[in-house]
Structures are given as C-alpha cells and as structure tokens.
Amino acid sequence: MQTNQETTSALERRIDMAVTMADINKEVEARLKKMARTVKMPGFRPGKVPMKIVAQTYEPQARSEAIGAAVEKAFGEAVRSQNLRVAGYPRIEPKEGSNAEQLEFSAVFEVYPDVALGDLSAQEIERPVLEVGDAEVDKTIEVLRKQRTTFDVAERAAAEGDRVVIDFAGRQDGELFEGGQAQDFPFVIGAGSMLKDFEAAVTGLAAGESKTFDMTFPEDYHAAHLAGKTVQFEVTVKKVEAPKLPEVDADFAKALGVADGDVAKLRDEVKTNLSREVKRRIQAKVKEQVMEALLTVTPIEVPKALVEAESRQLAENAKRDLEMRGMQTKDIPVEPAWFADQAVRRVKLGLIMAELVKAQELHAKPEQVRTLVDEMAQSYEDPSELVRWYYAQPERLAQAEAVVIEDNVVSWVVSQAQTTEKSVEFDELMGNAA
C-alpha cells in the first residue's frame, strides 16, 4: 500500500492511497469460497454449488465488499501510522490512475484540532450570593397561594386581578375580522393573556355593562394582518369574579403534601426545596460564566463534520420536544441549519472541556457520583427508589457522571479565575423581577 498525505486547510486532510489489485482479487476469491460453503441454488445441495456458478452470481457483491474492506483497512493504517485523530467520516474519491495493477483513491477528511487551554487568571467570574430566610419563604408561599386562587362572583365593577367573563366582537373597517369575536370568554385582568389596552377598556365595567372602544394593535403583533392596525371592539361583561386566596392553614398545608397539616412543617419543606433551587440557579449562573471564560481564552477552529452532526442532533431534539407538546412535526420544518451557531458553541465547549478534564484529571470519582445522586433523590418521596434507578443501568449512571465532570470543570475554572461574590435579590435570581 502506498500513501501520501496533503494538508488542504487547518483541519482538512487528503491522503492519496493505492492498494494492489492482486490483494483485492485474493480477497474476492476468499469471500467467494466462503460463500460457496453455504450458498443455496435450485438443483444443488447446500455447499455443492460449482464455484464457477457461485462466481458468476456473487462476484460483483464479493468484489464490492473486498474493495470496501481494502479501502477501509488502508485508510485505518494510514491514519494510525501518522497519528491522526479523524473527526467524522472520510470522503473516498477514486483516482484516474487506477489500472489493472492497482486501485488508487483519495480519502478527504477532517482531524480534531489541537486544543491549547488559555490563561484564565484574568477572567472575572461573579458568584451570586443569597441566603434563604423567612422573607423568601413568605414570597414562595404567596406564589403557592396564588396558584390555588379561586374566584367568587362580585357585584361590582371589574378591577385588577378579577376574572371576567365577556362577549366581544372586533371590526376592522366595519367588518368582523378573523379571531376577533368570542362568547363567554374568561380572562384575568392583569394576567397578561390580553393586550393591556383591551384589559384597560374592560376594567371598571360591571356585569351587564357594555362598551365600544377603538384599539390599535402593536406593530409587532403576531397576526400580521392586524399588526399596527386600529380596530373597534364591542364588549359586554357577563360576570365579574373576585380572586380569593386560600388561608395558610392546616388545609393549605395538607393540599401541599404535609399529611398532618402542620404549617411549621410546610414552611420547613418550602425552605428546604427553595434552598435547593437557589443553589441550582446559582450554579447555573456560575457555569454560564465559566463556559464563556473557556471560550474566550481558548479560541479554536472546529471540524465541520462535528458541527453538522451536532446540528442534526439539536434539530432532532427540537422535533421531539414539539411532538411532546402535541404538535405534528411533519407540518413544521425543523432545519439543522437553524442550530448551526448553537452547534458550533457546543462542539467548541466539548473539545475544550475534554482537554481540560484530561489535563487536570477532573474525571468523576465514584463517591462524587453517589453524592450527586443522593442530592437529586432528596426531592423524591422515596429517595432510595431514585438511587436504585440510576444504578440499575450504566447509561443512567453515565448521565450523573457527566454532571459531576461538568461540576469539576466549573470548580477548577473558578479556582483559576478572579472570582468575586455579589449579593443578589431573590426575585432577580428566581426570574420574578419586573
């Protein structure tokens, strides 16, 4: 076998190779002999078909397989001899020089880049700090109360927070427009399900009262035929209902899983769960900064083959997500190209983190994995059941190992960078800030 390597770009390589036809012919003959032992044909017992007939029938298949095996073997030997790390699959191109003596071809492929980890000492990472106390527990319980709001009929004008039931009809240039009318339509004023101008027009009306008003849709309204247009609505309020939040008592505690209705136990459980969620959100914010720092100090070019594969995977994930939401993906085109930028980022981080894990020995230790699984299990009614589930299959445990490795990388980067702590407001961290 003859080989010759050429560098065509930073990551692309071309290897010219040649294998002798004598070796291929020898392999074809060996394959045909093997087939002859078991091949079945009418008029012959298995294994007794004349070799000439076997060759006439199966020689094209045997030759195709022999050539494929020879090319694969030659390529494998070439990349191993030159210590090349191939990314993706090679593109095999026959060459015009092929003849009766030898088969010449080229393999075009990409290699993994050399990753030189950058200096993190000048990178700044800000760790949010938040201590969960009574105020945070009170806010969370208030959210839980609002999630269990009931409504009672109110004999008064509608106000912020009330649920109203209305009939409405909208007209554009005097004509009813699509989606502009409904009967017995309920919504909560201030919940954001209706445009603010529409809510403002309904506010102050009591049951049985009607109102006609003009309203202009926003320029970026999702219905293009209405964006920026001024229409006229006729609204009749049929019912006004005032919100009623449950009391924080034994019944409320029982509804949230505290069997004996002890409100103090409820508060303790809320604080425990809230502390766990705060920790998770802080870790996520630090991790995001760590990943940006790694990308900043370690610029690399990534193989197109890996980006394309990652883009396809992200597209498949998006399709599955849509299907889980009840959508028919056959009617919704999901193109891998949409995820190209995200794929490039993910591939870069994957290569950088792999090099960092190897260089700093940040692999997951069994005790770290067990600690993580135990922590995740604490939010379950029977923690031991989740632990058994993870340890029942290596694939599941590998997911936990991946999280531990990522945590190890984050911890190491934080130790190398300029890290400061900053107090953060509860609503800001939880995404509740206005």
Tell me what you see in this structure.
By secondary structure, the chain is of the alpha+beta class. The chain folds into three domains: 2-111, Trigger factor ribosome-binding domain (Alpha-Beta Plaits), CATH 3.30.70; 124-133 and 253-429, Trigger factor, domain 2, CATH 1.10.3120; 149-244, Roll (Chitinase A, domain 3), CATH 3.10.50. Helix content is 46%, strand content 22%. It contains twelve helices and eleven strands. It has helices at 21-36, 51-81, 134-147, 196-202, 250-255, 263-297, 304-324, 340-360, 366-377, 383-392, 394-416, 426-429, and strands spanning 2-7, 12-20, 86-94, 102-111, 124-129, 150-153, 163-172, 175-188, 210-216, 230-244, 418-423. Strands 6, 7, 8, 9 and 10 form a five-stranded antiparallel β-sheet that branches. A hairpin with a 2-residue loop joins strand 7 and strand 8. The longest helix has 35 residues, at 263-297. It is elongated. The model has no long low-confidence stretch (mean pLDDT 91).
